[in-house]
Amino acid sequence: MSPEFSDKVKKQVQDILAHYPEKKAALLPVLHVAQQEFGFIGEDTERMVAALLDIKPVQVREVVTFYTMYNRKPVGKYHIQVCSNLSCSLLGGAGLLDFLLKKLNIGLGETTKDKKFTISTVECLGACEQAPCMMVNFDYYGDLDEEKIDKILDNLK
Amino acid sequence: MEEKLLTKLFEIKDSFTIDVYLKHDGYKAVEKAFQEMNPESILAEVKNANLRGRGGAGFPAGVKWGFVPKGVDKPKYLCVNADEGEPGTIKDRYIMTHNPHLLLEGILIASYCVGINTAYIYIRGEYENVALGLEKAIAEANAKGYLGKNILNSGFDCQIYVHRGAGAYICGEETALLESLEGKRGNPRLKPPFPALVGLFQSPTVINNIETLSNVPKIILNGAETFVQTGLPKDGGTRIFGVSGMVKKPGIYEMPVGTNLKEIIFELAGGMKDGKTLKAVIPGGMSAPILTADEIDINMDFDSLAEAKSMLGSAAIIVIDEDTSILDVLKIVTKFYSHESCGQCTPCRIGTKWINKTVQRIADGQGKIEDIDNIKRLAKNILGKTLCPLGDAAALPILSIVNKFRQEIESYIGN
Amino acid sequence: MVKIFIDEKPFEVEEGITVFTAAEQAGIEIPHLCYHPAFAPEGTCRMCLVEIEGVPKLELSCATVVRDGMKVSTNNERVVEARKGVLEFLLADHPMDCPICDQAGDCKLQDYYEKYGMFESRYSENKEKREKKRKIGQTLIHDQERCVLCRRCVRFTREITKTHELGVFERGVHAEISILEDGPVNNKYSGNLAEICPVGAITDLDFRFQTRSWFLKSGDSICPLCSRGCSITIDSHKGFSHFKVPKRVYRIQSRRNENINGFWICDIGRYGYGYINENRLEQILLKNEQNEAMDWEKALKILSEKMKKVHPMDRSSGAVLILNPWLTNEELFLIKKFLIENQEFENVYLIDIPDGEGDDFLITTERSPNKRGLQELGLKAKSLSSDKLPEKIKLVLAFTPPNIDSAGSASVKAVFDKAETKILFASNKNDLSDVSDMVFPTAVIAEKSGSLINIDGVLQNFSPALEALGDSRPEWQILVEMAKEIDINHKYYDQFSSPETILQEIRKEISDFGKKSD
Ligand SMILES: Cc1cc2nc3c(=O)[nH]c(=O)nc-3n(C[C@H](O)[C@H](O)[C@H](O)COP(=O)(O)O)c2cc1C
Ligand code: SF4
Ligand code: SF4
Ligand code: SF4
Ligand code: FES
Ligand code: FES
């Protein structure tokens, strides 16, 4: 079944479209909305978005695969992205990544069996003063250590 | 001494609201600009202030605005660069979260000066929560009549939209940003034509960094003369230095342009963390060539750092300690650029990955002594030969690391 | 005009052109991969860097516009070093197996490597593994490992066909040219992709591994398959002395012509060359005299006897002439002068070639090359399929096109069935060749010279891209010989030693012939 936006989301998309003189310019924001809705951008979603913006599906694919934030496959309820850039690494980011992977018993880029967590690395999040840091969905967590990570995960239901 | 031009309100509770902002001279500069000045005199003021771009390249903002042609019948656009992807850089986020109205006011004055009615804030996708805050601030400004139609009865209309990126460092490069805003891959454009003539939607476009524009209200309110009293005559005002890495007090420090790097690290940021020894400093975001511990007695301005063959860039200071292997630094630097290369031009696409693989191989204990010269040769084959500055941004730090830490790298290579 | 110096030599060049174009006009080739004159420069391959005096960085020749007094070095040490550097990058992940690559001999990367490189690769990392053999269209194979990401192919589907099948997916070193799972390249111009790919990344199944490009001889011609008349080159194999090769023509490619087809041809024209190779008539055939070897002289004598037998008074009702829109202007003119005016054939018919689907780019609905020529010569012909035939037919001379379909040959057959003497002029065997009294083998457009007028009224001259096959001859030559044999005014035909001489004669009579292009 091909995905469809709910009426509320359709309204949201209309608002976005009004920001630009060209429909196509709304592609990135509309993909964000789609990902919010469906959790990932599958082929069907690509086609739907292409139709919505009067562009070709291939143009959507070009964009979806260029930007790291669009997931082409479903991810866990909580997508944990651990910063692997310099400031975070200087302060032990790599060790914390290992800690997380062990704790959740998955490999990098994988999702836990209960579909709750996916872990990946990410380049500098722009929060280097809180290094080491990570992002869970859109929330930032900084000044991490193992204890703090334990607490954060405990709070993610 | 910290000099708080932009960060003054940050400590105040609810500094992000329009009410607090208005209580502290908020939107006074717009009023002055609309009522007492005209586009020409605003431009003159910004030019006289020698406000240099805070995004990285340091191009004078007034000169940039002046490039936009007058009397074209196309709409013109302002793109506000909030991509903040340069590793180490954190300053724009602080402005947007703590004092978004300062930014909006700057955008408004710049737009009025150049004759722009639509501005887009291109914000990196990860800053979703920051973007929501900005949208709230925009709504507040709209409600109070500082945005929208016929602002303050001036007859001038202006609207600001927040546009989210989606995870691509290259979209901080101004022409990649334009492509991305148009709904495409973030492939930098060939120049000329320059964005001032052919930019967003084929129209004349100004691209400025968040911090650059946030300086504008102060320049208008207090005058260029006051502005240049802080900082240097040819490089006026303050910089918000972001300090991270192995220091006691990482964070942002707003200081006059030209403040000494050593002072920033050892006085403001509290010096080395956990009693570690300083090894090296990246002074202007990852693209800036590295400085060794004995090179840090240097003033943080464009010219001084250029003289030291590094750069001020986004004024993001990353402090590296002796216990960190330089190979790890090189690995992270090369991984970053090969990951972020848009891939359209040959030397950057292939060269960054090649170097990264070699560094990884050395780190895996498979290095050969000739690898070091080969890395240098490859970096030089990237340098100056790519379509956009990312190639140089990758090659220069790599070269600086290999040149300055050659011995250490050799020590990781067995015979 | 501006004056520039390229490699220290002065040149006067047009304002506004790029350094690359200026050099090209001066006969200096600058290595390039992404630049293609059909598209705006994208400046991505970085092969075309040159040094410009006073500019610190090397500049892109493909995107830099000439300035008066500019001094360009295209080949000094610094430029060559940079070029080698870029080449080394391009070859890092590229398979080094030209001998087994289909593009070998036709590949820019191989050319440049041989010219600037032949260096040992200092690449000691693991090569990136990529998909080697993906079918991306009916006739197209894509090899990701050989792709240099010049994006010519993507731009083609984006800007020329506007069909958007191809895109660049992923980024950085993982960037690749691809199609969607359910969206193969499917347009009427797809074959151009193999042609514009500068390396062996997109190859054409029709050509792939059939032969080696260095065995082929290229000749220029015009595509006769619709009335656009695209400029083409025909690559053919002469065969080896010891064994036969399976084909004569191996491929057709487009030839740049700004007035007609730009850089492109359609797939109909590209792949529709079977008629040049297959079912060709190579000998003169004379019914009932199978074993007699026929040479042209003898055959034409027999023909003239047969024609003379038909009394001139009979010719208006008893003789039929069947023409087709593949005949060149020169041939049609000779037919008009000799057969219609002198020999008084009054029953002139034209074989109807059915229309096909046209588009708003190159392909025309009219699927024959010279309807305009017929019109401009004022040749009036009835439709063979819809107009009435004479009651009695003594003699029919039929010129059939190579691609005559069953309806077309049936309409000619209807005439033949009524006629006493049936003479066929044809390049390919068809339903009529077995029932004719005489068959004269003719050359196809690819094998002859002459001119055609296309749909827009543009007259185009062409020369043979191939030699005529066996005993076949171009119709104009046959007609001149026939006229010399039969026409009382035979001296008139002595002047026609070539199609050019015939065209001159046409222009004496119709001064603006072929000049009415709109
Ligand atoms: C690879 C690359 C990344 C960049 N990233 C940013 C960025 O994140 N933010 C920014 O303001 N400028 C960035 N820039 C600089 C912009 O291209 C541009 O110069 C700047 O936004 C202009 O604004 P300014 O003159 O106010 O500094 C980047 C440049 C390059 C080459
Ligand atoms: S230098 Fe790198 S990022 Fe810039 S255009 Fe070339 S490949 Fe893209
Ligand atoms: S397939 Fe050929 S034309 Fe297309 S990008 Fe690759 S090398 Fe260029
Ligand atoms: S458009 Fe017509 S003339 Fe051109 S290649 Fe196709 S069939 Fe031949
Ligand atoms: S390095 Fe981790 S947030 Fe910047
Ligand atoms: S030909 Fe000029 S960059 Fe490719």
SSE inventory with pairings:
The complex is a heterotrimer of chains A (157), B (415) and C (518).
Chain A: H1 7-17, H2 27-38, H3 43-52, H4 57-64, E1 78-83, H5 86-90, H6 93-104, E2 117-122, E3 134-136, E4 139-141, H7 146-155
Parallel strand pairs in A: 1-2
Antiparallel strand pairs in A: 1-3, 3-4
Helix pairs in contact in A: 1-2, 3-4
Chain B: H1 18-23, H2 28-36, H3 39-48, H4 61-66, E1 77-82, H5 91-98, H6 100-114, E2 118-123, H7 128-143, E3 159-164, H8 174-181, E4 205-209, H9 210-214, H10 216-222, H11 224-229, E5 231-232, E6 235-236, E7 238-245, E8 251-256, H12 261-268, E9 278-282, E10 291-292, H13 302-307, E11 316-321, H14 326-340, H15 346-366, H16 370-382, H17 390-404, H18 406-411
Parallel strand pairs in B: 1-2, 1-4, 2-3, 7-11
Antiparallel strand pairs in B: 5-6, 7-8, 9-10, 9-11
Helix pairs in contact in B: 2-6, 2-10, 3-6, 5-6, 14-15, 14-17, 15-16, 16-17
Chain C: E1 2-6, E2 9-13, H1 19-25, E3 49-52, E4 59-60, E5 71-73, H2 77-92, H3 108-116, E6 134-137, E7 140-142, H4 152-160, E8 167-169, E9 176-178, H5 192-196, E10 202-204, E11 216-222, E12 231-237, E13 249-254, H6 267-271, H7 274-277, E14 285-286, H8 296-309, H9 315-318, E15 319-323, H10 329-342, E16 347-350, H11 371-376, E17 382-383, E18 393-399, H12 406-418, E19 419-426, E20 438-441, E21 450-453, E22 459-462, H13 475-486, H14 491-494, H15 499-509
Helix pairs in contact in C: 2-3, 8-13, 10-13, 10-15
What does this structure look like?
The complex is a heterotrimer of chains A (157), B (415) and C (518). Chain A has helices at 7-17, 27-38, 43-52, 57-64, 86-90, 93-104, 146-155; strands at 78-83, 117-122, 134-136, 139-141. Chain A is an alpha+beta fold and 157 residues long. Chain A has a 4-stranded mixed sheet with strand order 2-1-3-4, covered by helices on one side. In chain A, a hairpin with a 2-residue loop joins strand 3 (134-136) and strand 4. With 415 residues, chain B is an alpha/beta fold. Chain B has 3 domains: 18-230, 3-Layer(aba) Sandwich (Rossmann fold), CATH 3.40.50.11540; 238-319, Ubiquitin-like (UB roll); 326-410, de novo design (two linked rop proteins). In chain B, strand 5 (231-232) and strand 6 form a beta hairpin. In chain B, helix 2 (28-36) packs parallel to helix 6 (100-114). Chain C has helices at 19-25, 77-92, 108-116, 152-160, 192-196, 267-271, 274-277, 296-309, 315-318, 329-342, 371-376, 406-418, 475-486, 491-494, 499-509; strands spanning 2-6, 9-13, 49-52, 59-60, 71-73, 134-137, 140-142, 167-169, 176-178, 202-204, 216-222, 231-237, 249-254, 285-286, 319-323, 347-350, 382-383, 393-399, 419-426, 438-441, 450-453, 459-462. Chain C folds into 3 domains: 2-92, Ubiquitin-like (UB roll) (Roll), CATH 3.10.20; 128-277, Alpha-Beta Plaits (2-Layer Sandwich); 284-517, Rossmann fold (3-Layer(aba) Sandwich). In chain C, helix 2 crosses helix 3 (108-116), helix 8 crosses helix 13 and helix 10 runs parallel beside helix 13 (475-486). In chain C, 26% of the residues lie in helices and 18% in strands. The model of chain C has no long low-confidence stretch (mean pLDDT 92). In chain C, a hairpin with an 8-residue loop joins strand 11 and strand 12 (231-237). Chain C is built from 15 helices and 22 strands. Chain C has 518 residues and is α/β, with parallel strands linked by helices. Chains A and B meet through helix 2, helix 4 and helix 5 of A and strand 3, strand 7, strand 11 and helix 14 of B. The site of flavin mononucleotide has 24 residues of chain B, from strand 4 and helix 17.
